[in-house]
Design brief:
By secondary structure, this protein is α+β, with helices and mostly antiparallel strands. 41% of the residues lie in helices and 12% in strands. The protein is built from seven helices and five strands, in the order ααααβααββββα. A five-stranded mixed β-sheet has the order 2-3-1-4-5, with helices on one face. The longest helix has 12 residues, at 105-116. 28% of the residues are buried.
């Protein structure tokens, strides 16, 4: 395992489009060590390369950062915001922790599943939605809530869920 990544640009990183590679080169210039930019780089790769991190993308990131592929996989698999399997166009996360659970999270999740056609941890048949249970999002005073593509929707009732999801269909 490398203890310090090279500070220079690394050549020959197939799998990263040139425009994205240039963006990542600029990104790493803002960090004291090249490897410190790995998490934001994984976010950009996921955003630009189909909504999930393929094994090839993880290997390309490893080459770009001068890391072993297992190090990059370890980071990507640790954080729940990274998807290691194909994901729907829209990601719906329903909080299931205590405040949301006590205020109807299961009913909200059931409505999300019915409207999207996806079960938790799965992609809808039309590929539009990926539904997941998420840990506390810090919106406990406004429970129950869901996160749709990074935007919080709070104090929900089932009819609200239908409206929120219809806004992206």
């Amino acid at each position: 395992m490398s203890t310090s990544a090279p500070e220079r640009a690394l050549p020959n990183t197939p799998g990263l489009p040139e425009k994205l590679r240039a963006e990542l080169e600029e990104l790493v210039s803002h960090y004291p060590q090249r490897r410190a930019a790995l998490i934001p780089a994984l976010h950009r790769c996921q955003e630009e390369l189909g909504g999930w991190l393929t094994p090839e993308t993880l290997e390309a990131c490893a080459a770009f950062f001068g890391l072993e592929p297992v190090e990059v996989f370890g980071v990507a698999s640790f954080y729940p915001m990274f998807h290691l399997h194909p994901s729907g166009k829209h990601v719906v996360g329903v909080c299931h922790n205590i405040s949301c659970a006590l205020r109807g999270a299961e009913e909200i999740l059931g409505t999300v599943c019915r409207v999207t056609g996806a079960q938790p941890g799965r992609v809808s048949p039309d590929g539009r939605f990926h539904v997941e249970r998420v840990e506390c999002q810090g919106a406990c005073t406004a429970a129950p809530m869901l996160v749709l593509d990074g935007a919080f929707h709070e104090n929900l009732a089932p009819p609200d869920v239908q409206r929120v999801l219809a806004s992206v269909k």
